[in-house]
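Worked example 4.2. Below are the chains of a multi-component assembly; read each line carefully before continuing.
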Amino acid sequence: MFLQKEIFSGVFHYSFNSKKFKFNVITINFILELEEKTASKNAVLCSLLRESCKKYSNNFKLGEKLRSLYGANLFCDVKKAGNKQIVMLGVKILDDEFALEGEKLKKEAVELLMQVIFNPKIENEQFSKKYVELEKNEIKNLLKNIYNDKKQYALNQAVKTLFEGKTMAVNRFGTLEELEKINEKNLVESYESLILNSKILVCSCTREENFEFLNVLFNRLKAIRRKVYEIKPYEKFYFEKFREKVEQDDVTQAKLVLAFAKKQEGLGLKLEDELKIEVMNCLFGGSATSLLFNNVREKLSLCYYCRSYYNYFSGVIFVESGVESKNIEKAYENIILQLEALKKGDFSEEELNQVKCVLETAYESVVDGEEKVCGFMLNNFLKNRDFSVERIIEIINSTQKEDVINAAKMFNVALKYVLKEREN
Amino acid sequence: MERETIKIEEFKESFVKIKHKTGLTILLKQMKDFSTAIAVFLTRFGSVDRCFKKVGENEKITVPDGVAHYLEHKLFENEDGSITFELFSKEKALANAETSFNSTSYYFSSPAKNFLEALKVLLNFVQNPYFTDENVEKERGIISQEIKMGKDTPEEVVFYKCLEGMFKNSAVKIDIGGSVNSIKKINKEILYECYNNFYNLNNMCLILVGNFNEEEALKLVDAQLKNEEAVEIERFYEEEPEEVEKKYCEVFMSVKTPLFSIGFKLTPKKGEQRLKTVIGLRILCELLLGEGSFLYNEFYEKGLVPGAEVGFNILDGEDFLTLILNGESENPKEVMNKIFEEIVKMKVKGINEKEFIFVKKFVYKEYLEEFITPEKVAYYL
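Applying the procedure described above to all two chains together yields the following structure tokens:
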């Protein structure tokens, strides 16, 4: 079962356990404000911590350690949730019950995570210049390579255009400009801020119910004199004016991205209402029985993919599709038509029930995988909700046609972004 | 009906294999602790099956590239006008399908309580094709866009370019979806021809994994499966020389960091040897390129491969066996040379005691990992 508790000020532990799992997953999430000036630093820091701590000072030593732990997976990731940045470090390891020689793998995993987080290779108040440069290059590549995948690139450009001038426009890896300013010294300040000032969420998905093996980590965190920032509320995006942008590139197929935003009156939605928007989005373009799938793809044969996502943190629905350049307008008009159909209630109870079923299964399967469980717990934390999977399903199933119509009415097309082939 | 329990003692796991009276092979694995269950209905018909004949008949049939994939799309069409995805949704099932070089699979996952009804939908739609001139035509635009999407995905482009370089004749070098031109030749007659030959229960397999009741599921399967005459197919593959067609190919795309695929062409294997070779290649890749290896460290320390991540892909079929390593680098040739050097070293030195212990633990973990979730078990089976 899911447990959520605040261990002490600013440090939380969310957990789930079940005998069906053969592996344990533990993640430590540092939640920070997303800012253009610090995003790149945190991104570099995240992988730098993984790659060079004092005990496992190079990749070879770390690799050997991981190999001795049955090829345990020590992972790191930087995420973005609206105007928040999340630095995550975690480990996935075989449960002790399956160790061939009685090794205490869980204990070893926590020790490894602690080495990586609390014992970085900082000498003379600076990180190793060589590793900082290597990790800067890694992040630089990740930022540059967004361009390689044209679908991803188009979505990225659309986000930048829509949120221009706002924090939400900042990429989770920051910017190339800020990346250049990073050095082995100023990164130490970022590290201190990460440890001392961020909100921390520890997620564990384990085979056993006993969490004693995590006490060593909690005690270590308790021993630090932390002063946690007051986290600012999520900055939501509201519709102001319609924007349009067309770019050209070497593409075989045009990429169309639309954004739908709420007007100011959508303010102050309850968490239950947000789930109703999720139902509406699923009916709009979030499933294989959605209006976008059935009409833009199946009836009009305009595209292979045409789908929508609702981003809770910014409050925006994005739609993406790949079409022939000559069909851009037709696809655009038909996508708009589907949202209008929702606003008019032009859909059957049966169609609504189908998407409720789809969502129910998606949520129900959360508890069948360790990583999915950890993702769900982080999501609950970020949304500041303590909903169980059952409660979420209950809200989804209670959503009425009228709720969907009202949810759809909140949204207006705010952006049309097109990436198409070069004219010459 | 022949029933056999296959035990994997080392992992304290087992599954059931049934040869159904219709000829269908059924693999079952109950996982009662999980909330969902999965079913996969698979036929051994993939993109490389372009030329075939029924055993006992004289005429060989050759079909256009991309037909297995086209058929996969069209099988979702029903004669009564119902929409397959909607039928699945009503049973709270999430369904999809996939075509590979060797097979086509149709699958769903659903909550335990809806499993039987969803299984009925799966068995029904796969066994009842409904192709018309109109619905086949309608799909052409959708599949063309799917093919074009692939042309804008550099990983996919470089992957197929590598296959093209390695293979002279084998159909494995051709995009699973075919090309915008080849799919123009596909019509309902061709689809029925392929369906009648390859979607015969003797050529198919049903995999059920997760939280379901075996007895009830088998009862349903008994009632839903069509008794039909066994069709035996002979497949024809172009003869493929051992040597590669081209040792090096380049393709220009607008990317910021070059992408590479390094392919190794191996002699296809049969029977147990085939499985052993694939497992061996997986271990080799981990030893050669996994974290803790010399190359991983080298690629990372020199910044030669971003994230030091070199992925691998093993393609294994009746007439092809290949290992493809892929990644990104400003200097792909240097990456390639380093990998070659390391392979030569490994051939001379073999693997040491430490590496051997790791291999044992790693293989053990990898196989346990296959038994984590219903999805993974279904894939494993």
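Take a moment to check your reading of the output against the notes. The radius of gyration of chain B is 22 Å. The first strand of chain B starts at residue 2 and ends at 8.
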